[in-house]
Design brief:
With 264 residues, the protein is an alpha+beta fold. The structure holds iron/sulfur cluster (3 copies). The site of one iron/sulfur cluster has 14 residues, from helix 8. One iron/sulfur cluster (SF4) binds next to helix 8.
Length: 264
């Protein structure tokens, strides 16, 4: 996709004092958009009210998720005790090709029509802490920055965790292989200027339709684009918590074109 270079400044008014960037031509600003729900649900989750009645808390989606991205809400949780959710600050969804979580859901709380990327819409990424972005100053990715992701990856060995290096093995089950591959991609970024969010965005076939790095104040900065599905991988991978997901929000709800700006 031919992208025009553009800078977008967004004031997002979710009560978080959010600043964000948006794409798709001209300067875009965030609307005064307040999400009705605070929990990010797995791919294919139906509208929240319906979801709360349809999710029978069986944990089938959680069992089949190869990235260990899905949790069940506990008694102190934010919404719907026992229902399935994703906390992207801990582990995002990596948009598995066949969406096993969706297929495993016995009730349709995760809509079976949503087992292809075109039909998945979990939410929309936003920038919540612009000044913390390492790309603005060209700060390089260190082992320490990616270490927390090694630390919360349960399927690797203690020595792999300690050495911050995974050793793929032909006998590894698919789940282990997938998570090791993610860690390898992360480790490959060590010593490079941070653009982890854009470089590891799992949106297919073209991650740059969902996020890309653009010039800003002499450095770079992530630009959220309209194909973003709100999977939250970028939220997990960002070392400085620059990004968050507005669950169920659409690009059009969160971003609007500023008056007087040119169309792309
Ligand atoms: S698409 Fe894959 S990584 Fe994402 S929640 Fe479903 S099973 Fe987990
Ligand atoms: S920018 Fe990419 S990684 Fe981030 S939420 Fe959107 S699709 Fe997922
Ligand atoms: S992951 Fe993206 S948002 Fe986070 S510091 Fe790096 S470039 Fe900035």
């Amino acid at each position: 996709m031919q992208e025009k270079k553009r800078r977008q400044f967004i004031k997002q008014a979710t009560g978080l004092g959010v600043l964000g960037l948006a794409a798709a031509g001209g300067i875009w600003v965030a609307k005064d958009f307040k999400p009705e729900i605070s929990r990010l649900r797995p791919p294919g989750a139906v509208e929240e009210k319906k979801y709360l009645t349809m999710c029978i808390k069986c944990g089938q989606c959680l069992q089949v998720c190869p990235y260990d991205a899905i949790k069940l809400e506990d008694i102190d949780g934010k919404a719907g005790i026992g229902t399935a959710y994703i906390d992207p600050l801990e582990r995002g969804c990596y948009l598995c090709e066949a969406f096993p979580c969706v297929l495993a859901c016995p009730t349709g709380a995760l809509d079976h029509e949503s087992n292809v990327i075109e039909n998945v819409h979990m939410g929309m990424a936003i920038v919540v802490n612009e000044s913390a972005c390492l790309a603005l100053e060209g700060t390089k990715v260190t082992q320490e920055m990616i270490g927390r992701i090694y630390d919360h990856t349960a399927v690797i060995s203690e020595s792999e965790r300690h050495n911050r290096k995974v050793v793929p093995n032909d006998n590894d089950p698919e789940k282990v292989m997938l998570q090791k591959t993610l860690l390898q991609k992360l480790s490959d970024q060590e010593g490079k200027s941070c653009s982890l969010c854009a470089d590891l965005c799992p949106f297919t076939p073209d991650p740059s339709a969902a996020i890309g790095m653009v010039d800003k104040n002499g450095g770079l900065f992530p630009e959220i684009r309209d194909a973003c599905v709100g999977c939250g991988a970028c939220v997990e991978l960002c070392p400085t918590k620059v990004l968050q997901i507005l669950p169920h929000a659409t690009y059009a709800e969160v971003y609007k074109k500023k008056k007087g700006t040119k169309n792309a």
